[in-house]
Amino acid sequence: MTQALTRSEAALSRAEQAALIIGRWAEQQEPGARLGTKKELQERVGVSKGTFNEAVRLLESRGLVSTRTGPGGGLFTVAPAPLARLGHALLALDDAAADVGHAVRIRNALDPLLIEDVVAHSSAADIARMRRSVAEMAAAMDAEDDLAFVRANWDLHAVIAAVTPNQPLRSIYLSLMDLIRTHTVAVEPDTDQPLRDYVHSRYQLHVDLVDALDRRDKAAAMRLAAEHSIQD
């Protein structure tokens, strides 16, 4: 590697380290700037071809670079993804940022109706499915995979929504969740708040919510749903 890394960064895989370094180069350039050919960048970073290709895949999945073939090809920077705040985290979105913001707002407004139905109609099997989603959130949290954590969170919302016998409510809610999920490409830390603290508090809120639904404690479930909306 040609650039000094912090202790935590040095613990990453070689591909992650290479992606981090190239990503920093990309951030210093204008959108659409050519960073170099793959061979030039591989030699500059000092990793194997396989490791470099994996780093490029990581960067492309995060929307930081694009690859072009042919004469004058190579790696190019792309415009940074628009961001939407989710509590103390920032969702990096594609070009549908405004739609995602509207979808989150509408979803939050529907939460009380949904929770009321789930308190009344959830079964032991429904609660078990919710707890599996919460366990996936815990696994992602322990792995410090923030995007996986958010996606597991959304899976829990989908499981909860599936319980309501109100078909229009269920359909609208799940469509909103699909829109949010489809257009989120990464989770970024909010520089003003520690993302790890937010993730842990978010996890605990959902643990408490599922526990309240299991007890059919409508007052607690509605209070937690309101707190959930405030955090968003």
Descriptive report:
- Helix content is 65%, strand content 11%.
- The chain has 232 residues and is mainly alpha-helical.
- The strands form two sheets. It has a three-stranded antiparallel beta sheet with strand order 1-3-2.
- Helix 5 runs antiparallel to helix 10 and helix 6 (124-142) runs antiparallel to helix 7.
- The relative contact order is 0.12.
Helix-strand blueprint:
Layout: H1 7-10, H2 14-27, E1 34-36, H3 38-45, H4 49-61, E2 65-68, E3 74-77, E4 83-86, E5 89-93, H5 97-121, H6 124-142, H7 146-161, H8 167-182, E6 184-189, H9 195-215, H10 218-231
Summarize the structure.
This protein is mainly α and 232 residues long.
